[in-house]
Amino acid sequence: MPGTPARISIAAILTVAGLCIAPGAPMVASTAAQQDDPETLRLKRDNLAKMLRPISLSVQDQPLGDVMRFIEDFTGAQLDIIYMDDRTPEGLDPETPVSLDVQNISALRLLELVLDQAGRDSFEGASWQLTSWGSIEAGLKTSLNRRQRVQVYDIADLLLELPDYPDAPEIDLQSVLQNNQGGGGGQSPFGGDTQGNDDEERDLEARRDAIIDLIQAIVEPDQWQRNGGDGGNITVFQNTLIIRAADYMHRQIDGYRFWPSTRQSATGVGASRYVSFSLDTGIGTVDGFENQPVVVDTGGGNGGG
Fold first, then answer.
1. What integer pLDDT is reported at residue 253 of this predicted model?
2. pTM for the full model?
3. Could you write out the DSSP letters of every residue in 35-66?
4. Looking at residues 252-270, what average pLDDT do you find?
5. In a domain, 181, yes or no
6. Are strands 136-140 and 126-130 parallel, antiparallel or unpaired?
7. Boundaries of domain holding 100
8. Is 136 domain-assigned?
9. Shortest CA distance to 53 belongs to which of 105, 14, 94?
10. At 70, which CATH number?
């Protein structure tokens, strides 16, 4: 499932994949981030920070709705859970049984583990993302795909290749000067190579396609329109990628740019890609909670909790 261990740039993705691309290359002017007002950014940071509170949880066949309410009450974060109802047949079933026994993990990681179980009967699975108003939205990927945003990724640095000139021209200056005597217009010693320019453009296009192929192979392969999904698509304009996709897909590409890059990391688990976050001293505490684990053991049964 996407979502969690974050800050990863396309350059980092390509480096991990074995391509010779310098990691840490500046990637993006994010149109979505530029449009977020200060209050929305604050809400996003606060909700994400609240979900980093450590917790231990032991439940057996507990209804999904009860577990989600506990996470929201425990963290104080604003969670928008997309449940199944008459208007949302693709939503999560609040009665789905959840069984977990985890120790001292972040509430965000707990949410992901719960969503893994909640979406196990769905072909696409479940995930979470940040909404345009700052809350944390969780549900089946089919539901999350309805809320997409456009982000522009500058890939000029990834496309740059240092030229190699093995067949540099040999210039006979004496011959050139003789041909130019008498005021006549001489020819340039550098012949025009139209074919070379065409080859360079084709090579540039191939490098763009390789980057797109790699992104769509690593980040939610089944969700891209090219692969038959409805989660996002990629358009090329000069040296940029214009990606319209759900937030949980953007997160796997470049993390959250409002969060310190040193406190984000990305890992792959099987066919899933996770972006994780940690608190930074520059962010501070949220609502004064103490960073201490809490043990909750609801035992068995299907009752509320």
1. 92
2. 0.73
3. H--HHHHHHHHHHHHHTT-EEEEEEEEEEHHH
4. 84
5. no
6. antiparallel
7. 10-162+199-283
8. yes
9. 105
10. 3.55.50.60
